[in-house]
Design a protein that fits this description.
heterodimer; A: about 130 residues; about 0% strand; B: mainly alpha
Chain lengths: ~130, ~160
C-alpha cells in the first residue's frame, strides 16, 4: 500500500467510524428524550409509540447520519477489502461510542464498561481477521 | 429478551441479504433499477424484515438502557454468526476466531453485570419542581391578598 493510498484508506475508515458514532449518539439521545417505549406502548398503544419516535427531530438526524455511515461503508468496501473494513470500523466504533457516550450523553462509563469495550473490540478484530 | 432479539436479528438479516445478493447476477451502476427489483426477491425481503425487527428492538433497548451498555451486547451477534457457521454450516473456525468469541462473550458478561442505565441526580429536577411550586404559591398568595382587600373595601362601604 503506497503512502497516499494508506491515508486514503484511513480517511475512508475514519468517515465510517465518525458518521456511525454521530448517528448512534443522536439516536440514543433521541430515545432517551422520548422515554421508555414499553411504557409508552402500554399507555397509548403501538401507534402512540411509533408516533412518539417519528415526531422526534433528533431521531431523524441520527438516522440521517446512520444512512451516511452506510454509504461511507459501501464506498470503503468498493476500494478496500471486507476483511480490513469490517473489523476496523466495527471495533473502532465501539471505542469512539464509549468516549462519545461519556462526554456527550453523560453516561457513567465506569471501568467495567471500558474493559468490556476493549475486550469486545479485540474480540471483533480477531473474529473477522 | 430485547437484547437477544437485537443480537439475533442483525446477523440473521445480514446473512439473508448476503445469500440473496449472491444468488443474483452482478449489478452495475448502469442498471440501478435491478437493485429495486432485488428487494422483492424472497431472501432479501426476509433479510429486510429481520433488519427492521433489529432496528425496532435496538430503539426499544436504547429507550431504557445506555448506549455504552447496548453496543457491547449487540456485538454478541458476531458470536452467534460464528456459532451458526460452525454448527449449522460446518465451517472450520480457527483458534484466533475462538479467542475472539471468548473475548466478546467475556466483554458482554462484564457489561451485563453492571447497571444498564446511568442514574441521574434527582436534586436539579426537585429544585425545578420546587421553584414551580413556589411560583404557584406566590400566585395563590397574591389572589388571597386581593380577595381580602376586596372584602375590606366591602366592609368599609357605608350602609
Amino acid at each position: 500500500m503506497t503512502h497516499t493510498s494508506l491515508w486514503f484508506a484511513v480517511a475512508m475508515i475514519a468517515a465510517v467510524v465518525v458518521s456511525s458514532t454521530i448517528g448512534e449518539v443522536l439516536t440514543a439521545a433521541a430515545m432517551k428524550s422520548i422515554g421508555d417505549l414499553d411504557d409508552i406502548r402500554a399507555r397509548s398503544g403501538l401507534k402512540g409509540a411509533i408516533k412518539a419516535v417519528i415526531t422526534c427531530p433528533l431521531f431523524f438526524a441520527g438516522v440521517g447520519f446512520l444512512a451516511l455511515a452506510f454509504f461511507a461503508l459501501l464506498f470503503a468496501l468498493n476500494h478496500l477489502n471486507l476483511s480490513l473494513v469490517a473489523p476496523a470500523s466495527a471495533s473502532l466504533t465501539l471505542v469512539t461510542n464509549a468516549i462519545a457516550g461519556k462526554f456527550f450523553l453523560k453516561e457513567n462509563v465506569d471501568r467495567r464498561r471500558w474493559t468490556a469495550a476493549v475486550l469486545v473490540c479485540i474480540g471483533v478484530y480477531l473474529l473477522a481477521h | 429478551m430485547i437484547l437477544g432479539l437485537v443480537a439475533l436479528c442483525a446477523p440473521l438479516g445480514d446473512t439473508c441479504l448476503s445469500r440473496g445478493m449472491v444468488n443474483l447476477p452482478p449489478i452495475t451502476l448502469a442498471h440501478p433499477l435491478t437493485l429495486v427489483a432485488a428487494v422483492f426477491t424472497p431472501w432479501i425481503a426476509v433479510g429486510i424484515a429481520l433488519l427492521i425487527g433489529f432496528f425496532a428492538s435496538y430503539l426499544t433497548a436504547l429507550s431504557w438502557a445506555d448506549l455504552t451498555f447496548v453496543l457491547p451486547a449487540t456485538a454478541f451477534g458476531n458470536v452467534i454468526v460464528a456459532l451458526f457457521a460452525r454448527f449449522w454450516l460446518h465451517e472450520a473456525i480457527s483458534l484466533e476466531r475462538w479467542a475472539g468469541i471468548a473475548l466478546i462473550t467475556l466483554g458482554v458478561g462484564f457489561v451485563a453485570q453492571g447497571p444498564s442505565l446511568t442514574e441521574r441526580p434527582v436534586v436539579p429536577q426537585l429544585r425545578a419542581h420546587g421553584s414551580e411550586l413556589a411560583a404557584d404559591a406566590s400566585g395563590l398568595d397574591e389572589s388571597l391578598q386581593e380577595l381580602s382587600r376586596t372584602e375590606d373595601e366591602q366592609e368599609v362601604q357605608p350602609r
